[in-house]
Amino acid sequence: MRVVSARMHRVRQQLVHEFRTSSHQKSYLEHLLIELHDADGRVGWGEVASPSGPYYCAETTDTCWQITSQYLLPALIGTDWEHPEQAVENWRRVRGNEFAKSGVDAAVWTLWAAAQGMSLSAALGGTRREVVAGVSLGIEPTIDDLLEQVRLHTDAGYPRVKLKIAPGWDVEPVQAVRKEFADLDLHVDANGAYSESTEHLAALTALDDYGLTMIEQPFAPRNLLGHARLQATIDTPICLDESVETVHDLETAIELGSLRVLNIKVSRMGGLTPARAAHDRAVQDGIKVWCGGMHEFGIGRAANVAISSLPGFSLPSDVSASAKYYARDIISPEVVADRGVVRVPTGAGLGHEVDTALIAEHSIESISF
Ligand code: OSB
Ligand code: MG
């Protein structure tokens, strides 16, 4: 196969509900949408879901634009390849920049799946026909606001809720939610906001009493030893997100005992190819996996649904319905969740139509290659 031309669009979408984490706050997102064309008129779509600022990871929308347009697309266009894993060899020399790579990698996979007449899920080796979605809820102004959000989403049938926490917003909100939702599959995500100070460790240890499914990324990304030390003293499984950008990070974390659960994000790991490799490696060592999200628009969301269909994804994923995030999504049909269950598309390629008119309407900037 050969990509003969490409386009990249910088698109802004308003969130239906403002989202706050320990590190940043957002009411809209700007993602890059990549379309790859082959000589037979097929199109492959991928999404770069980088946050605008460098608060989740080092990348930003601007760095992704730069790396994609200056290095990744020029390295791909015009080369011959048989399989997506071969196509991504073209940018093996580019260090880091996983969000930028992930959008091009996913576009390569959807183009290849379309050419094979296979769904993205089948192309990846997915076995599930439906995946279970949870929701991730941000830090709210008050506990009452948070309880209202939990009610809204559990009433809609989502079986798992993740709460963002930060020092000063941890035991109290968790206690309040647990009091009203005794049996809910509940977990927390700190986005690395805690240190190993006595005060912070006391709060994290206190969370051990609330039957949480996991505590996600309590410490800074590089602090694998700290995560191992904490895991040795609490029963609640630790889940890593930001700490694991490569399969090598995962192997180190497993060896150190820093995690029992892995949040696999297609974006954070540089695409479907490395995300699938991380899935295989985690399952081999009995690490539970689920798919995290970055508030993707429909194209990135469809890639997340496809990877979540691999057999090892045994916990609910952050692949909530399009409507949880956006008034109107850029794909049709939109992603829908029925009591938290999302059907895995069976149509060739992405399995959704891409609404190019809506993309054009919300596009800030486009570039052709
Ligand atoms: O840490 O998982 C995270 C969103 C932006 C940045 C980081 C994270 C998140 C989420 C949202 O939790 C997951 C989603 O619903 O897409
Ligand atoms: Mg996280």
From TrEMBL:
Record flagged with keyword Plastid: no
Names of the cofactor(s): a divalent metal cation
Domain of life the protein comes from: Bacteria
One Gene Ontology term of the molecular function aspect: metal ion binding
Mandelate racemase/muconate lactonizing enzyme C-terminal domain ranges (all copies): 143-237
EC number: 4.2.1.113
Enzyme class, first EC level, given as a word: lyase
Alphabetically ordered keywords of this record: Lyase, Magnesium, Metal-binding
InterPro entries for the chain: Enolase-like_C_sf, Enolase-like_N, Enolase_C-like, Mandelate_racemase_C, Mandelate_racemase_N_dom, OSBS/NAAAR
Keyword Lyase recorded: yes
Protein name as annotated: o-succinylbenzoate synthase
